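Purpose: get a first structural picture of the assembly so the mutagenesis plan has something to point at.
Setup: two entries, given in the order below. No constraints added.
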Amino acid sequence: MWSRLSDIDRMFNAMNLLQSRMDKIYGDYGTSRGFPASWIAAESMPKTNLYDLGDRFEVVAELPGFLKENLDIKIQGNYLELSGNHQPDAPENYSVHRVERGTTSFSRSFTLPSDVDSEKAEASLKNGLLKLNLPKAEAAKPKQITVK
Amino acid sequence: MSDKAELVKSDTEIVEKSRPIPTVGSLVDIYENEDEILLHVDMPGVEKDNIKVNIDNGTLSLSAVRQLETRGVSTWEEFGDVEYKRSFSVPQTIDVSKVDAELKDGVLRLHLPKSEAAKPRQIEIKTG
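Result (C-alpha cells, whole complex):
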C-alpha cells in the first residue's frame, strides 16, 4: 500500500498540519491525558535517558527549576535513585491564572545494566538538565583481549 | 481554502525530507499583578540563544529548540531533541518594548509589563 517512505512521511505531514490547525483553534486548551503530544503535560516523573559509553554510563534527566541543593542522588552497585524536592516558585502578591508546572518533588529509581563505581560518579546540572557520569565498575568494563 | 492549498502542495513534493524534530507544548504557569503578567515556562535543556519570543498583534508565541549532545549507545531514551512551542493571546495593554525574559535552570521567566494607561488608578474624591 505504501510504496515509499515518503508516502508515509506525507501522511504524517498531513496529520501534523491538521494538528497544528487544531492547536490554533483551541489555543491553550486544557492539558489532560489522551491528547496528542503537544497538548499534554509532561509526566510528573522526570524523563531520563541512559547512554552506554563503553567504560561508563551517562544518565540525563529533565529537571527544570531544580537547584543542585534540592537533589539527592544515591548509588549502590547497579542501583541508582534520584529524588528531589523544592519549594514552588510562585511569586508573591500575584494572582494565578494557570498552573501547569507544579512538580515540586519526585523520586525515581533505576537498575543500571551493570555495577558502577560510586566513588568516581559525578553529577552536573545545567539549564535544567541533570547529567550523571557513572564509570562502570572494573569488572564490568570492556576488556581488550590480545590474540597470542 | 488555504488548508487545501497546503495539503495539495505537500502532496506534490516528491523529495524525501528529513524528519522534523517533534513539537511539544511546554508547561506554563501564568501569574498577574497590578504591574505585569508573569509567565514561567519549563524548558529543560534549552540554550538561551535557541529561544524565540514573539509578540505580534496580540499573540505571544514562544518557540524554543532543544538540541541534546548525545554520545554512546542509548539503553533507554525518554526524551530527545524537541521544539517547545506555545502561543497565547495577550491583551493589547502590554508594553511590548519593556518585555523582559530571563532563563534560569531550564525555566524561562517572561515579564510582560502593563502599559501605564492600563494600570489601576486610585481616584481621589474631592470634597467641595
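Helices of chain B lie at 2-12.
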